[in-house]
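Data deposition worksheet. Section B asks for the primary sequence of the deposited chain exactly as it was used as input, without tags or linkers unless they were present during the calculation. Section C holds the resulting structure in token form. Section D is free text for depositor observations; keep each observation to a single sentence. Incomplete worksheets are returned to the depositor.
Section A, Depositor: J.P.
Section B:
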Amino acid sequence: MEYRESFDIDKREIRRKRRQRNQALSYLILFLVIVAAAVGVVLGVRQYTERKEKSGEQAGHDKLEQILQSEEPIVMETSSEVIPEPTPEERLDEIVEAAIEGMSLEDKVAGLFIVTPEAITGVATAVRAGDGTREALSKYAVGGIVYFSKNIQSEDQLKTMISNTRSFSRYPLFICVDEEGGSVSRIAGSGLASKVDSAKKIGQTGDSNNAYVAGSTIGTYLADLGFDLNFAPVADIANVDNSVMESRSYGLDAASVAAFVTSMMLGLEEQDVTSCLKHFPGIGSTAQDTHDGIAVSNRSEEEFWANEFAVFQTGIDAGANMIMVGHMAAPSLVGDNTPSSMSSIIITDILRKELGFEGVVISDAMNMSAISAYYESDQAAITALKAGCDMILMPDDFAQAYNGVLQAVKEGVISEERVNDALRRIYRIKFADKVE
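Section C:
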């Protein structure tokens, strides 16, 4: 009897443990099912979001392609009215909006930068565009590439490099160079064209038509090589002793300089090369060089308005599409030594609102010591964009600047609409030939 009772107790204990084990197993299975379901939901949402983003980008690309390939205006009729043919301005707006609609946020931000080929490829000196350039432009859809003398070996080499670079980009690129004439002649200085006289020598002739001829000459050989943006003419007035722009300025008198600047601008633009007036608000008013460190102008506000601003205003009235803002500090305008390229007073209040400039504002090269010695690349780029710059030229550390701006947009420090607004100005230049 005692044995049987002991046996029954053992059986009950075995059944109890079995139930506990089964319950534990059931809970484990339920837990795994819940985890699997949660992972599935997360992956499903992510895939849906990615498909939606890609679908949106593809839709934008398809819309842009349809607009660009349309040769005949589409006139829609209703029972009572006919929608008129869009004006060139309306058609350009339509093209620009379609282009922006098809861009990811990452591509939008990259499109605000103009960089050297070395900055995105990592090579020491770029003299060709191959798989490295293709991969770099796939990762960073920058808005433009600027070339210097070290990138030039021969005419055929340069043309091929530029052509390949354009073909690798998903979006239109600015292909840029500094070709002022005189000592700042990357192309002519490399032996690929006859060198044009400096602005100083041209200004000394007293005939502004010579500036037009210089612009036309430079524009012709730049366009033939594949360039479409020239960081010229210099609109600075060399009106202080030992001016840093003494040999690169057309002279001392605002009215005379304005005539030479607009003439060269016209000569470039007629060859389908976008000009860029520089360096607002007028770096010729200092003897210090922003390549080497901080530069400060002692000009009064009244002197700026009577001289430097008069030159830029003439260029704006003549149709300037792009203006470069320098890094010189102008305490009389700003109240402190903030670089002009990072000042909303200089860019937004004066250049945009008071002078009425509606084109692209680009910073001077951000790798100059006036910026790089005092600011991190991301800080400088973010501040310049918030101040009103549409494009950032040559940050000291491109990856840092790009990632910093991208994060700033994601966090709302810079609004995406601010980025879109800059891109609208940029693409109005890049797509202008589609409606002419």
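Section D:
The chain has two domains: 1-102, 105-434.
DSSP finds 17 helices and eleven strands in the chain.
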